Amino acid sequence: MTEPATSRDPVEITLLTQADCGFCDHAKQVLDRVGADYHLHVTAIDLATEDGQRLAAHAGVLFAPGVLVAGQPFSFGRLSERKLRRALDRHRPA
């Protein structure tokens, strides 16, 4: 039996990146800022890897950076901090 999520459980964020990507750098900065207010566990995966390509195809990521929140496709391209914060608020336990 799985235990309910608590405010201490991190939200899993997967960041699909590529080299020399300005939007990827921006996404990392957004995640750093948001991580100060939310308990996040961020995993960065290069799109050039087999895992990165598989995840991108599954999530419908057309170009970097791709972001998955709790394993679900969230966005690709320029990451909106406001949109991410709203999504993370929905992941907080009531």
Outline:
With 94 residues, the protein is an alpha+beta fold.
Describe this structure in words.
The protein is an alpha+beta fold. Helices cover 37% and strands 24% of the residues. It has three helices and four strands; from the N terminus they run E-H-E-H-E-E-H. It has helices at 22-35, 50-59, 81-91, and strands at 11-17, 40-46, 66-69, 72-76. The chain has a four-stranded mixed beta sheet, with helices on both faces. Helix 1 (22-35) links the parallel strand 1 and strand 2.
Distance between the termini: 20 Å
Q: Which class of secondary structure composition applies to the elements?
A: alpha+beta
Helical fraction equals: 25-40%
Order of helices and strands: EHEHEEH
The stretches of 5 or more residues where confidence is low (pLDDT under 50) are: 1-6
Rg value: 13 Å
DSSP strand tally: 4
Gross morphology? globular
Q: How much of the sequence is in beta strands?
A: 15-25%
State mean pLDDT (0 to 100 scale): 90
User: Strands of the largest sheet, in order across it?
Assistant: 2-1-3-4
Largest sheet features: 4 strands, mixed
Count of alpha/pi helices: 3
